[in-house]
Design a protein that fits this description.
The protein has 2 domains: 38 residues; 237 residues, MetI-like (MetI-like fold), CATH 1.10.3720. Helices cover 76% and strands 0% of the residues. It has 13 helices and no strands. Helix 9 packs antiparallel against helix 10, helix 10 packs parallel to helix 11 and helix 10 runs antiparallel to helix 12. The protein is globular and about 75 Å long.
Length: 283
């Protein structure tokens, strides 16, 4: 039994480790040449193992502070996207009139890149942040709140909004009419049909949209952190490191983004598997 467990673990771990090992090997060879611009693996590891150390040559906060600010920005925009996209998606998926009313506008706005809205968001919100909203001129004393600019959060919200919305619409529209009619025959009212039939049946699509939306939110934040007045964030650190050729910080930020994205996606997958556990039984 133990032998089978070890054999299965070996089969799962080793194939997945081949590509990372190959990347590390190519990275090592590319950084070991004379006059190479690419930082060495050890330099990047040094940055990753000292997250609270302020970069000596960068006008940036320590790596941990930049990570925390980026995470707060992403979570805020992502949660707002979920709170707005899911109810609207349910409404549009359930009622044809609502879908016909909103669909033309959504189809026009959806293809626009979220970063393209950054200048407009700056015009609308200015440089105001959660700190300036609650503490006014004294916002500078609250570092993290003052770095939560409304314009940046709005751009992240925009990027995550449409994947969640479209998947929610498809999930609600895809509920089998047989289930709804059967519930009606059993005497269920509209609220009971929604709570017991439509919502559970559409959850897999909704969770797929939530996972896709999170990935887009992370892609948007890196570009959005070029936002004027920003003094921290992983995207800001990548840009600053590139300007002064401190590429080990840029590489460290990229690695953190990848690892964090993997962990968040895995967490959302676990939630999806839990709330949609009935799917396995249905299959």
């Amino acid at each position: 039994m133990k032998h089978d467990w070890r054999k299965n673990a070996f089969r799962r771990i080793v194939p997945g480790a081949i590509i990372p090992f190959f990347i590390l090997l190519v990275w090592h060879l590319a950084s070991s040449g004379h006059g190479a611009v690419i930082p060495t693996v050890s330099e990047v590891v040094d940055v990753l193992t000292h997250p609270f150390r302020a970069p000596p040559n960068l006008d940036s906060k320590p790596l941990f502070d930049s990570l925390l600010i980026s995470v707060l920005r992403v979570i805020t925009g992502y949660v707002l996207a979920g709170l707005t996209a899911v109810p609207l998606g349910i409404l549009m998926g359930r009622f044809t009139k609502a879908r016909n009313f909103f669909w033309p506008v959504i189809e026009v706005l959806r293809p626009i890149c979220p970063i393209a809205w950054l200048p407009i968001a700056i015009i609308v919100f200015g440089f105001s942040s959660f700190g300036s909203f609650f503490w006014g001129v004294g916002a500078w004393r609250h570092e993290f709140a003052s770095q939560m600019q409304f314009a940046m959060v709005a751009v992240i919200w925009w990027g995550a909004f449409f994947p969640i919305l479209l998947n929610t619409i498809d999930g609600v529209k895809g509920v089998r009419l047989l289930y709804i009619e059967a519930a009606r025959m059993l005497g269920a009212n509209e609220w009971q049909i929604f709570r017991r039939v439509i919502l559970p049946a559409s959850l897999p699509s909704v969770m797929t949209g939530m996972r896709v939306g999170m990935g887009i939110a992370w892609m948007v934040i890196i570009a959005a952190e070029i936002f004027p007045g920003t003094r921290a964030g992983l995207g800001y650190m990548i840009t600053t490191a590139h300007q002064v050729a401190e590429y080990e910080y840029a590489f460290a930020c990229i690695i953190i983004i990848g690892i964090l994205g993997f962990l968040i996606t895995y967490f959302l997958k676990c939630i999806s598997d839990y709330v949609c556990r009935w799917q396995t039984k249905e299959r």
